[in-house]
Amino acid sequence: LTIFIMTVLMSVIFLVVLFLHTFTIEWSLLIAILYIFFELCLMTAVALVFSTFSTPILASLYSLAFYLIGHLSWSLELLIKKIKSGGGRAILKVLYIILPDLENFNFKTEVVHQLPIPTKLLGLSFAYGLVYTAFLLLLAILIFRRRDFI
User: Would you say the pTM of this structure is higher than 0.85?
Assistant: First the structure.
């Protein structure tokens, strides 16, 4: 709820400033804002998982690393294509499947340049975020139940 309220407040401020500057509002910006919210939800779930088994500083560092890796995971796909065969390729494929692809939520370029965004891509990105977030929250619950509070 906090993330939602803060995202709405920042979006309203952004749209007001944009309107005061350009005297128009590009409503397609709401798509980019919505998917930024989905990414924030996923990253909150990541931080929650890491906070269940590590110290606050380490959980922050792990979450930051997860964010960076999530936005750079497309490079793993390029590397997989360049490696012919072998164990390294298999390991990279597993990593590519496990690690999140946060670029699935990045529609800023399309919105800014007024490029069409396929509805199917929006739906798949939403489903991807929902499933990944639900999995991480379930994992956090399972880890939290096993913790010893002595």
Answer: yes
